[in-house]
Structures are given as structure tokens and as C-alpha cells.
Predict the structure.
Amino acid sequence: MSAIVDEVPLQGTEEPAFLISPESGPTRAAVLFLHWFDEAPNANRTQFVDEAVTLAETGAVSLLPQLSFPWGTPPAESEADLRRIEAEMTALRSGIELLSSRGELPLAVVGHDFGAMYGALLMAEVEPACGVMIAATPRWADWFLPFWPIAGDRFDYMRSLDPVDPVNAVSRVTAPLLFQFGKQDFYIAPMTGLELFRSANDPKTIETYDAGHEMELESIREDRARFLVEHLGLGEDQ
């Protein structure tokens, strides 16, 4: 099997998402890939294309949306940022609905950086078959306060975003989770990653690598692929 790459619109998004499907044979699972935030060329919907194509060859359909907050609009203050997070979630829910229209398929959510943080919120709602969180932080304020000028009191800001913080969302997820972190990640201290991991329910696994925040080692992708194949049933005889 090879892959078919299409572009599909999602509610509330300006740029279409990639939909990558098996060219032939049955569709056996669905994956939502959510990209990272950076100035790198792959800090967009293209980040996981190669992985999605490989998974299509085992029978998985994948959706790769273009995220918008904070990519297109910077964080500024609590009320506006909460609205922006909810708007992003509305778009991502429409992506889940699109994948659901392909049949009753086991779903995985894979996210890197901000993509993983949105992924945690989604997984708390939809209860997937499994999920992968790559280089994520427990709270939105962990990123927004150090790197953007935020109006108002910083503690009020943290409290206002607490209901949508990933550290709280993962505590409501019961699906198997794989956490992947880089030992040389300039932005995420080991204890920060452990806080997020410890908030999650079993079954869960944490892996660390000799990598920075970009997490581009082949071994990271291989571990992620094995996890997805196992928990989505893609390793069974086809």
C-alpha cells in the first residue's frame, strides 16, 4: 500500500489540513498529528507528513491540520487567549469529526510542543486508543509568560488558564500515553516534563533522548511508530 495525500478544509481554519490515506486496502486506524511551534521550516502541518505516509502503508488515515494560536496571533491577555485556545479546539474537534466519518476506527493523537498541549485537551474529551506527547509543558503560561508580553498580573493570568492547562487535562485521560522528551531541551527542564508525566494515569511511558526541543532523532520517530502500531493494532496480519 502507498498513500493518497489530499487537502481538506476544517472549521475556523484559513489553511486546509493534509489528509493522508491508504491508497488501497482497508483503513484500520486514524491518527491526528499536531505540529510544533518554531521558526523551522517544518513548524507547520508538514512536520509529520513522512510519518503519516508510512502509517498509511499499514492502513492508517492521518489528519495534519495547520494550527493558528500562537503561530498566527501572539498571546496577549487571559480572556483573549482563552478564546483563542477554544477557537483552536473547535477547529480540532471538526478534525476529529472528519476522521470519525471514515468509520469506527481506533484513534491516536500525536502532538509536539504546543501541538501536544492541544492534544492533551482533545484526548481528555474524546478518549482515544492512545496518545503521544512530545516535548510538552504542563501549562500554557510556561510558554506565554516568558516569551510574550502578557497584560495584567502574571498570577491572575496563570489562574485564568488553569482550566485548559495540559497538566489537568492528562489527569482525565485513561488511554495509554507515550511521553517523549529531549535531555538537551533548552526550554523544558527534566522536572517540568516529569510533572506532566506524573499527572497522567497508567498506562504511561516516558522516554528521554539525547536531543533538543526539535526532537528530530530517528530513534524518537521509531519509538513513536512502534507505540502507534502496537496500540492501534496496525502490527497485526493484514
